[in-house]
Design brief:
TIM Barrel, 30% helix, Lyase, Ornithine Decarboxylase, Chain A, domain 1, binds pyridoxal-5'-phosphate, alpha/beta, nine-stranded mixed β-sheet, 21 strands, globular, eight-stranded parallel β-barrel
Amino acid sequence: MRLPPHLAVRDGRLLIGSHDCVALAERFGTPLYVTDGDRILHNYERYANALKAHYPKVRVLYAAKANSNLSILRMLAIAGAGADVFSSGEIELALKAGMKPQDLLFNGSSKSRRDLALAVERGVRISVDSLDELTQLEEMAASANRMVKIAFRVNPALEVPTHPKIATGLRTSKFGIPHEEVVSAYREAMRCPHLEPAGMHCHIGSQILEMAPFAEAARVMLRLAGELKDIGIHLEFIDLGGGLGIPYRREQDPEVGPEDYASAVMPHFLKGIRELGIEPELWVEPGRFIVADSTLLLTRVNSVKHAHANFANVDAGFNLLVRPVMYDAYHEVIAAGKADQPATQVWTIAGPICESGDILARDRRMPELIAGDLLAILDAGAYGFVMSSQYNARPRCAEVLLRGDEARLVRRAETMEDIISTMVV
Ligand SMILES: Cc1ncc(COP(=O)(O)O)c(C=O)c1O
């Protein structure tokens, strides 16, 4: 299997950075999320540099929803990233990690008054998703006597080649203002004395490996920027969202990167702004590309069963990684202590949850497995831990962050006391 450069096999053991996965599992227990922080910084710099090679005024707002561990947010804050935040909780995490309010964009199609109040109070820019939200926000900004900078989220009505549950810019999607109504939404915003329409935002979906939809989204946004200029809107930023995918199927997915993204998008962006004579900042919101491949989920085989399939029953299930059951997502799996042994058998990797859908991987050629073996689920860093649950009263597992030769616990495993502590009998 083609491994990314931060993973390697030595003496039959899977290494992440300089760390032996078997040793990490023994030291910290399983299940365990292990993240290579150096890989995250590499991915972040690569993304920012690919765009800055075309245009200097670029800001990368890491999509905190992909992985909001405070230590990861902190590393990215120090590297200069802002954040796309989707709840008041994510606002608080990003600020706690050291990001500045002006480095955040608060997105979401269903923001509560409490969410909006926090953003107004902290001075966070808001991507407004409906005219109702606009009215509520104006009232709040007026009563707080604040000026609030806003964007509108545009629904560009684009088909994108990805799983339907993560296509977010379809005409039928719940997100954004239909593109043909965007100009009148800005006119409405211009009538709000406490709101300043400073930007425009879109995000067309996630895990996209073809560049044409990104280019089309940029074209739509620049056309709209022209219409907004005509009505007197001065855009400080145009935010094209995130969405760049990674090659989860390492043998067959195309390996596209931010350089391909930039080559597809930047000609439309640059042509558009030159024609309009404007120089807005370009904001982007990558999540998955920054963190997905940085992380392994280590899980131990509890038992094996040879029935209609060979089942390896492991200690992590969709309580810890919901992507396979939710999006039919594919993750590569490696027997971390037997990585050089011949793949002689076909295995189904089944979690411990009481649902027949709790299968992490199907029909994988792997070495013979026995109870106690350690498996590594690859590319688990995006939409992994953040989507975990306590289903079946299973405490969430720990997270470890690697920097160089150091391995640190950045989230302890939950205990039964944690599960019980919020309940009242
Ligand atoms: C508004 C917004 N921006 C950015 C992202 C990040 O997308 P990705 O992780 O695919 O880069 C998302 C993900 O759903 C999103 O909803």
